[in-house]
Design a protein that fits this description.
InterPro entries: D-isomer_DH_NAD-bd (IPR006140), NAD(P)-bd_dom_sf (IPR036291). By secondary structure, the protein is α/β, with parallel strands linked by helices. Helix content is 31%, strand content 16%. The protein has a seven-stranded parallel beta sheet. Strands 2-1-3-4-5 form a five-stranded parallel beta sheet, sandwiched between helices.
Amino acid sequence: MRLLVLDREHALYAALLMAAEPRLTVISGNNPDTLVEAAAECPVWLGEPNLAAQLLRQGVHPVWIQSSWAGITPLLADDLPKDYALTRAVGIFGQVMTEYLLTYMLAHERQFLGRLASQVGVQWDDRAPGSLSGRQILIVGTGEIGQAVAHMLAPFGVDLVGVAKNPRALVPFGRMGGLDDLPRLAETADYVINLLPDTPETADIYNLALFQRMKPTALFLNAGRGTSVVDEDLVAALEANQLAGAVIDVCRQEPLPASHPFWHTPRLLLTGHTAAPTLPSLLIDLFRDNLTRFWAGQAMRGEVDFSRGY
């Protein structure tokens, strides 16, 4: 079978796949314009959704696309076909996402940036640090990644609260709520973590009214989608000291324009969409598992329901 790998890491993915799956003929690259003819002969594509979308717009039609991202927003555009199988990258981001979140939550508890500023000012900083033990963490978006994060945070003795589109009892969360419950649940959270996908229901939900209900000691972390946050409202909340701080990994426009106020907002840290990078070995393991399922006509992991958008 012929496989098209369309990704910035295409050479590495192609090498790993050819070594592991000799039945595959792999064509790879990162420029859709030069791969139109090759793509037409490949029923299966593996790669970045934005690059795959460019090929689809040129009339090439696969049987199945395996995204190398968890998000597949570029492939949901109204002008693109949706009569093929699409699978998201699942089961490979839980640990790296947890490591990202822990980095900044622990830095917040240990007052890392403040101590760095004290050192620059030649000041001995002996303030007592905080601890995650007993902190209430609100995870907004309890899908595959959110659940993995919750399980890895649980040993720190935190109070886990979840928000889901369709709330239900879910281990290890102590409480669950729906999106309508978010303002109420945010009132008592020490950390509010956004892991929601980009859907019409999740657009602009983090607005000034919500930020005003959060504790002034709370830290907001957005590792979901930039469209969930009203940028000017977050800026206003931080300038008014209504939040302790914000860690922003995803933005509405990336790279962030130099004129955007986030660059100069107090207590806002930008992390450049690096929260949960795709680890090649794990992605290839996922793809090979799904390829076996594809050949057998079985359901694949991470299959997307185009009507829901995820």
